[in-house]
Amino acid sequence: MTKAKRMMQENLGLIDLVIELLDARVPISSRNPDIDDLAKNKSRLILLNKSDLADERANNAWMQYFESKGLNIVMINSQSGKGVKSVSAAVNEACKEKLERDRKRGIIGRPIRAMVVGIPNVGKSTFINSYAGRACAKTGNKPGVTKGKQWIKLSKTLELLDTPGILWPKFEDKDVGLRLAMIGSINDDILNKDELALSLIEFLKANYKGLLAERYGISEDDGNVDILTGIAINRKCFKAGEEPDISKASMLLLDDFRKGRLGRISLEKPE
Question: pLDDT tens across 221-238, in order?
């Protein structure tokens, strides 16, 4: 975290815009609280990625929420490319003051330089590839750029400073870590997947009533462990001796959620 922050601070002088990718299912949990401070003097653009997996009503509410904060925002699905074409107009809107200053100085056609930030698994690389297309090319070192830094030409009007390092949010709230684990931004190998699945069941019962019953043919009136056992039985997740394999059922449930097989679900909504 410290290294990533230092790298961002070192490169802020080279850019005009910070593009922040958020997961539309958890826009607050997938934000780094330090970004507002680090990038306070830069133009900002927020991309709500994976919006196709999130609850449509929640998406609209989040759009209004961020716009009320004075932030430019676009909903996208970088996997399919939906919404990506709208990014260019949003970039120009976010940087209109910079573009106007350039115009008054007689500077025409200089591309906007941006830095993309986002947590693991938010779709940063997919967005860059989707936006740039197959013709994604390095334009070479620029004056003032430290050794090893390269600019990637995303379009005629936008260049991205390609830097390693990902900014990770602070886990001051345990629920933040829980939500990020649910969407797959934390390595599954270090998690108790059974407990995570039980937490997801609890959330779905409270916020998307009937969804589990419809998907897996179980009763939502049962306890969460019984529901997970029912999923194992109905999806034929068994150990030797026909014993329900709870761990396998847990991963099946989590995978179904992460890939949108349960429907469009948001884990957070604006207060």
Answer: 999 999 999 999 999 999
Please name which of 102, 98, 108, 110 lies closest in space to residue 139, comparing C-alpha atoms: 110
Q: What domains appear along the chain, each with residue ranges and CATH number?
A: 2-162 (3.40.50.300), 187-258 (1.10.1580.10)
| Kind and range of the H or E run holding 89 | helix 87-94
Residue found under tokens 């009503």:
57
Contacts of 220 by beta carbon, 8 Å cutoff, 6+ apart:
205, 209, 210, 212, 213, 227
SS3 232: helix
HSE-up of residue 232 (Cα within 13 Å, Cβ side): 22
Does the predicted model carry a pTM greater than 0.85?
Answer: yes
Q: Could you give the C-alpha distances from 244 to 116, 199, 211, 234, 239, in angstroms and in order?
A: 44, 19, 22, 10, 6
What are the tens digits of pLDDT across the range 179-231? 999 998 888 888 899 999 999 999 999 999 999 999 999 999 999 999 999 99
- DSSP H or E segment with residue 175: helix 174-183
> 241-246: which pairs have CB atoms within 8 A and are 24 or more residues apart?
246/194
Q: At what angle do helices 193-207 and 174-183 cross, to 10 degrees?
A: 100
94-121 CB burial, b ≥16 within 10 A, e <16: bbeebbeebeeeeeeeebbbbbbbbbeb
d(CA 138, CA 126): 17
Given CA atoms 257, 258, 264, 268 in this order, what sign does their dihedral have?
Answer: positive
Q: Rounded distance, CA 97 to CA 103, Å?
A: 10
